[in-house]
Amino acid sequence: MSVTILSMASTLTEIECINPATGAVIGKIDNMGAAEVAEAVARARGAFAHWGSLSLVDRLDYVRSVRDGLVASTESLCELICDETGKIYNEALINEFLVTAELIDFYLKHAPRILGKHRADPGLLKNKKAYKTYSPLGVVGVISPWNYPYSLSLGPTITALVAGNTVVLKPSEITPLIAIESQKIFAREGYPDIFQVVTGDGGTGAALVTSGVDKICFTGSVATGKKVMASAAETLTPVILELGGKDAMVVAEDADLDRASNAATWGAFTNAGQTCIAVERVYAVAPVYDRFVEKVVAKTKSLVPGKDMGFMTFPPQMEIVKRHVADAVAKGATILTGGSSDGMFHEPTVLVDVDHSMDIMTEETFGPVLPIMKVTSLDEALEKANDSKYGLSASVFAGSSEVKKLASERLDAGSVCVNDCLVAFGVASLPFGGVKESGMGRSHGEEGLLEFSKVKSVVSDITGLKSDPQWFPNKLMSPTVIKKLMRFRYGKSIAQKVKGAIGS
Ligand code: NAD
């Protein structure tokens, strides 16, 4: 899909939505400005008064009926995703629909536990009861990208709603139609203003950031993420930033090479490589390098365009992919298969003779290219994998438990897959997000739900006494008493004292 801003029709300009596979115009959206965004946020603020006061049971009933409505519309929504993005049907079905349904299911089951009242250890203060409670933030602004326009729009939206917030979503101007269609299903189930969609380009997103929402959940590139954070800092609006990646795969000497090569091929080329956690680079140790590369190349050559891999979505991204491949080749890389493109289809491409002087090994490519580097040891593989400004996800393929444990501990990323890749996003109970420039904050799991909640600490006296020992005149708490208490509480453990006494 490409986007053209049309000339002024009414007061707003319009943006054309184009199917990247055919070039056909499949819709138009308004390019909304600050005024339209402010109106939507004001409506969401009004709706919050009621929605935020509902019981969690009522909110979950609503979310369950939305889930049923979405699942009942799977066919038409998946087709729309394919039209907007150029991805193949199964990618829409599995990586967008199934993943989102799983996330909803997780919160339907676990939100009552996560958002419930939690007793806390009062520590020294045995005369107190301590606990935490969670309440919604208010209005959440969600800004989403074009590569998974359904799951990355609805995932944060539903999570924020479950936590009791209302939501204003700004989907990518490249793929806005699926959010607009899905929102109709939410509205049909009631509470029309708790979830609204505002359409437009980066200007609309920027207006949402400064609109006075209570939190921004942004998914997109590092460059835009930095702008969002800088702008949000003006009003101290908290942000979740789910940004780009350059995920590494490490192949150890004792790896099952069939599984590793199947995973590398799928991990690099699913969704035409336009996945934030795609396998973007591989480090294979020298003893297995040749066999691994041979298997990857054979599998890559067997992929059927249109069946196994679809189109790229965004023309400027295609230019980045071509630029990275050309830069690598100019610096000495060899293309073993692929390398060409036709319209918005880029062949699945395998590169060798690569190193870290090339953009293909250091910058996010976000396309169907798999560079494989030979390394001398596992140590070098892990070092190279961590030699990146990104840290979204990583994977390791190995046989022995020691190597699996060592690698999963040393890989510096928000998630690590062992003898697997990409699946961490699909495990709804696990927090998802990055380290380093890949972002901050988490979606999914307990942490994801708590991102959209205010935590309150409550301490309650349980004695009913007229005064506490440390209150004025503070007679019971002399320095001598406190020091004794500290020695008793934090001094050497009994085991240490016994050891000291027997001199061992
Ligand atoms: P992008 O940063 O260009 O745009 C993302 C969204 O931000 C769009 O809706 C866009 O209109 C909006 N936007 C643009 N300028 C803005 C501004 N100044 N203020 C507020 N909003 C603004 O990203 P993209 O090209 O749509 O998506 C691809 C990127 O997203 C890749 O880098 C990919 O790795 C990343 N991504 C990350 C995750 C993750 O979970 N970490 C998931 C998917 C994609």
List its salient traits.
504 residues; alpha/beta; Aldehyde Dehydrogenase, Chain A, domain 1; Aldehyde Dehydrogenase, Chain A, domain 2; 3 domains; 7-stranded mixed sheet
**Order of strands in the sheet with the most strands?**
12-15-16-11-10-17-18
What overall geometry do the principal axes of the alpha carbons give?
A: globular
Q: Provide the list of bound ligands, each named once.
A: nicotinamide-adenine-dinucleotide
CATH superfamily membership of the largest domain:
Aldehyde Dehydrogenase, Chain A, domain 1
Oligomerization = single chain
Number of helices: 17
**Rg on CA atoms, Å:** 26 Å
CATH fold description of the largest domain: Aldehyde Dehydrogenase, Chain A, domain 1
Structural class: alpha/beta
The residue-averaged pLDDT reads: 96
- Which percent range fits the helix content? 40-55%
Sequence stretches where pLDDT stays below 50 over 5 or more residues: none
Termini separation: 73 Å
The number of distinct structural domains comes to: 3
By CATH reckoning, the class of the largest domain would read Alpha Beta
Question: What this model shows, in words?
Answer:
- The protein is an alpha/beta fold and 504 residues long.
- It folds into 3 domains: 221 residues, Aldehyde Dehydrogenase, Chain A, domain 1, CATH 3.40.605.10; 182 residues, Aldehyde Dehydrogenase, Chain A, domain 2; 33 residues, no CATH class.
- 42% of the residues lie in helices and 18% in strands.
- The strands form 5 sheets. Strands 12-15-16-11-10-17-18 form a 7-stranded mixed beta sheet, with helices on both faces.
- The structure holds nicotinamide-adenine-dinucleotide.
- The site of nicotinamide-adenine-dinucleotide (NAD) has 31 residues, from helix 7 and helix 8.
